[in-house]
Amino acid sequence: MASWHRYIISSIIFSSDIDDLPNLMSLNKLWYTIGRECHVVNMSWLTDLDLSVKRNRKFLLNVSRRFNAIDISKNSKHSWKLLAKYTKRLILKERQDIKLEDFVYFLENSHQLRELNVEGCDWVNDSVIDALPCRIVSLNIDHADGIPRISKSAVETLLERHYMNLEELVLDASLLRDENLEDIAKCSKLKKLCVSSCENLTNTFLGYIKSLQNLTCLRLKGGNDFTKEGLVSLFECESYLHLIECRCLQQLVELDLSDSTDFDDDCVDQMIRCCGATIEILRVSSSVAITDVGYESIENKCCKKVVITQHKRIKC
Question: So where are the chain's domains?
Answer without folding.
Answer: 1-68, 69-310
